[in-house]
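Hey Z.,

So I finally got round to the adenosine-5'-diphosphate thing we talked about over coffee. Here's the setup:
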Amino acid sequence: MALLEVTNITKRFGGLTAIKDVSVAIEGQTITAVIGPNGAGKTTFFNMITGFYTPDEGDILLDGKSIRGNRPDQVAAKGIARTFQNIRLFKEMTAIENVMIGMDTKLRSGLFGILFNLPHVKREEERVKAEAYRLLKYVGIEDIANTEAASLPYGVQRRLEIARSLAMNPKILLLDEPAAGMNPRETVELTEFIRRMRSELNLTIVLIEHDMKLVMDLSEHIHVLDYGQKIAEGSPEEIRNNQRVIEAYLGPGEAS
Ligand SMILES: Nc1ncnc2c1ncn2[C@@H]1O[C@H](COP(=O)(O)OP(=O)(O)O)[C@@H](O)[C@H]1O
Ligand SMILES: [Mg+2]
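And the result:
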């Protein structure tokens, strides 16, 4: 059984069908890419898996159980974490505070403890902070732990989002254009890092990306969307040579 199974999902926005009857099965501990031209429906696809939108039709199964209709926080608690195409950090908070926010469901002490400054709350805060620092270190940006998120370079902000998404200790990590805005050197480092996360954290990774070198280097399996529909799936080799895929990217006239 696939770890994550999306069956025949459709999502409409008024008259526009952003995703039409798309099915995708993802095995555990694999790296899968979802590619396609701008507006193909890739982010909408992620938004449905992570509970930001509910599909109009179809189902989403995690470990064989439907998570359709779950809220984003419920999906996250079940082990699916994500990053955003348009980075979503708390800009005025420091890097480490952004990661601590991602962990706050683990802060059990609650308001009562904070108000009365109880010693176990202090200990819990210290523990959360240490764990957040460990995550920053894991993604390689612990040196900027106390820097305000807004003032960090783009590539560092993307790594920070990954650190925050790991704070929930996910099984599945969805990355929406993780290399966008990165220079070639950062992109190569990111490719290595994604591979490392998969093996060290036993993660299942699904990524949306336009950088074809990254996609081809990293993915074991690729799904191609075009105008909301899945037009191909296969290995990097199969996708590279797929005529429909070439046409979707180049336009039919140029792909003869
Ligand atoms: N919340 C929304 N309301 C209306 N239209 C949307 C919404 N989200 C996405 N769309 C539309 O759905 C289509 C697919 O968008 P998106 O999933 O962002 O594509 P991609 O990530 O592949 O570039 C686009 O035409 C986009 O304008
Ligand atoms: Mg998108």
